[in-house]
Amino acid sequence: MIERHLNSLPLWFLENLLNHREIYHFISTRVGGFSNPPYDSLNLGFHVGDNPELVLKNRERLATAMKIPLDNFITARQVHNSNVAVITEELKGRGAFNFDTAISATDAMVTDTPNICLMVLQADCVPLLFFDLKKKVIGVAHAGWKGTVRVVAQNTVKVLKEKFNCSPDDILVGIGPAIGPCCYEIGPEVVIQIDKAFHNKREYINETSDGKHYFNLWEANKMQLVQSGIPEKNIEIAKICTYCNHPVFFSYRHQQRETGRFGAGIMLK
Ligand SMILES: [Zn+2]
């Protein structure tokens, strides 16, 4: 990932998605907004207890920096499941200005309609951005441990294949900043769920000598994409841990739950 300042707002970009003229994408940070602690400062989430007027100002700040009208954004009510919503023109603007109109109960969205900016929000969960170079289709997904166990990344690829006839060879994926294997300690109840989902393969769980378990969300999601047929060379992992980098990105764990959300967005021009 590389950092650029747009209209003096720091934003991050995945290198494998940058320089494709057909799309805009971004990863926002917590820097440059209006919200007060514990949402300081560029909180984009209406659902976390922050003052909605400040959230709106933050979103306008992002929209201005990206030169994408806020009316063109779409967000979802993310619920850690594996539904994938297919977004069409008439849904444009849902969840852009408030939480009530956000697309209900979905953690992934795909579209082939231009000028719709799909955005997922997170603080430690993995944001995934998808772009099919040939079919000109985009997608976003949000995966914490639950979404990972429920294979939301894989379902997103499935919908891209089934609804848009995408070939996995043509799909680029960016895995954005999220809590890393350095910091993502999981409890025994989560270990059980992950073991069940991954048939006891412990590739993505690191057990330390003192019996603690750390989950590698980045690689577990990458594995799902590779299993869906996406070549490894098409996948970029940001390798930025939100917990380690909590001054830059919101971290739910680091802030002991009460915090803001940063955004990951993509739009076809
Ligand atoms: Zn870390």
Largest beta-sheet characterization = 6 strands, mixed
- How many strands in all? 15
Sequence stretches where pLDDT stays below 50 over 5 or more residues:
none
State the secondary-structure class.
Answer: alpha+beta
Order of SSEs, N→C?
Answer: EEEHEEEEEEHHEEHEEHEE
Approximately what portion of the residues adopt beta-strand conformation? 25-35%
Percent range of helical residues: 10-25%
Number of domains: 1
* Overall shape: globular
CATH class: Alpha Beta
In round numbers, the mean pLDDT is 97
User: What gap, in angstroms, lies between the N and C termini?
Assistant: 21 Å
- Identify the CATH architecture: 4-Layer Sandwich
Radius of gyration, Cα only, in angstroms? Answer: 17 Å
The total count of helices amounts to 5
Kindly report the name of the CATH homologous superfamily: CNF1/YfiH-like putative cysteine hydrolases
- The CATH topology label is CNF1/YfiH-like putative cysteine hydrolases
Ligands, deduplicated? zinc ion
* Strand order within the widest beta sheet: 1-2-3-15-7-4
